[in-house]
Amino acid sequence: MGQKRIHLVVRGRVQDVFFRASTLREAKRLGLTGWVRNRPDGGVELVAEGEEDQVKDLLSWAQHGPATARVDKVDTRWRSYTGEFSDFKIVNE
Length: 93
Description:
Alpha-Beta Plaits, 5 strands, 5-stranded mixed beta sheet, alpha+beta
């Protein structure tokens, strides 16, 4: 299938519910690289790269997140694969 990159902004009750930590665990389980962070507007943003099937699996997971979250909307943008990441991590900006 090939390598893909996705950029997501997840909205709803997604901060203070372990969304970033759960995303990190799920991305590592799927063998993806990239990052996840909280946004000032209350959302969570993430960029992930890897095999297309695994990226699609992460997108599917992000549409509900961990049990403690309530996902109302996921803004999805497919991007060109860059290979710039060596692992998946939580970033604070």
